From TrEMBL:
Pfam families: SnoaL_2. Residues 21-120 form the SnoaL-like domain. Gene3D superfamilies: 3.10.450.50. SUPFAM superfamilies: NTF2-like. This is Nuclear transport factor 2 family protein. InterPro entries: NTF2-like_dom_sf (IPR032710), SnoaL-like (IPR037401).
Length: 132
């Protein structure tokens, strides 16, 4: 994960560290670690696709999705919001299975409950170049 381009971060130091660990689970494609951040009733929405409902369904969705490329690295640009509801603007650096690198601009909206677990995550990016 890259943080050297992070310009604005409105999260508290504690939540920022929490979020870095959360994103590290994504970057390492560790579905077990990622699932520990989710509330049981979490909802995930990717672009205009139907919502994925529940922690178990999200874990299966990500397991399948993460197999479609070799690696992912987040490059954080801005984080706006509060510790319970925030949006990340980032570059996502992918490596495809054929070795080609693809960088995509992305945003992700995250909501957390009082226990600090993710209740909703919505991410938006044009992934077409990744699969060309």
């Amino acid at each position: 994960m890259k943080t050297d381009q992070l310009r604005i971060n409105q999260l508290s130091p504690e939540t920022y560290q929490w979020y870095l660990t959360y994103l590290e689970a994504v970057d390492t494609q560790d579905v077990e670690a990622y699932s520990r951040f989710l509330a049981e009733s979490c909802e995930m929405i990717s672009n205009n696709n139907p919502p994925v409902q529940g922690k178990e369904a999200i874990a299966q969705f990500l397991t399948d999705y993460w197999q479609s490329f070799a690696s992912l690295e987040h490059d954080l640009l801005n984080i706006y919001g509060s510790d319970s509801a925030f949006v990340l603007e980032a570059f996502n650096h992918y490596t495809r299975h054929d070795g080609k690198s693809v960088t995509l601009r992305a945003v992700a909206f995250t909501d957390r409950n009082e226990a600090g677990l993710v209740t909703s995550v919505r991410f938006y990016t044009d992934v077409a170049p990744l699969f060309e």
